[in-house]
Design a protein that fits this description.
The chain has 186 residues and is α/β, with parallel strands linked by helices. It has helices spanning 15-25, 31-34, 49-55, 68-78, 116-122, 127-138, 154-160; strands at residues 38-42, 60-65, 90-94, 108-114, 139-149, 166-170, 179-185. It has a seven-stranded mixed beta sheet. The protein starts with 14 loop residues before the first helix and ends with a strand.
């Protein structure tokens, strides 16, 4: 996969570390049930997470990045799926996390965010607050957000994922490499 091993492209850690968290909080549902869940992967970059989610049975996948190059890389990664894989349910888009499409409102059952909010936070200017607000807007009530982060300060994270909109299911503040936070949309 590219010039490096897949784990070289993964932010923080690979899917094997996230999968048990997904199973615990989203459900270890049968593949048929997982295939019906709509999943958003913001800031997908060149991470193979999309392939991992597909391999775990998720079929309604939407991934976006602000970089057209990252979206092109994701298209290339999809070529690694077995021949005949039905990728019709995968939507790759160039989007800005601060202003997601209006038609996405309340559309997603699950968001798996892996380092995207960290990169947005580092850009400054209130961008992480705006992006978190957009994620809240596009997640269905009762939907789940899995956020892997090692940069966004705890106080700011609690502010942007406030108790009014989110129920905190897992606080990853004490995780060693990066926090794996799980929240449910109220």
């Amino acid at each position: 996969m590219g010039d490096f091993a897949a784990d070289e492209y993964s932010w923080y850690y690979g899917f094997e570390a996230i999968k048990p968290v997904l199973e615990e909080h989203v459900g270890a549902a049968a593949a048929e049930e997982r295939s019906k869940l709509s999943v958003l992967v913001p800031g997908c970059g060149n991470d193979p997470l999309l392939l991992d989610l597909f391999g775990a049975g998720y079929r309604r996948l939407t991934a976006f990045d602000y970089s057209p190059g990252a979206i092109e890389r994701q298209r290339e990664l999809l070529e690694y799926l077995p021949v005949g894989s039905d990728v019709d349910g995968i939507d790759l888009r160039v989007e800005d996390a601060r202003s997601l499409p209006k038609e996405w409102e309340g559309s997603f059952d699950v968001v798996v965010e892996k380092g995207a909010l960290d990169a947005i936070y580092l850009s400054g200017d209130g961008n992480v607050e705006q992006s978190a607000s957009e994620l809240a807007r596009v997640v269905k009530p009762g939907g789940t957000c899995v956020s892997v982060s090692g940069v966004v300060p705890e106080g700011l994270r609690r502010e942007v994922f406030g108790a009014e909109d989110w129920e905190w299911l897992r606080d990853g503040s004490e995780d060693l490499k990066a926090g794996c936070f799980v929240l449910r949309r109220r």
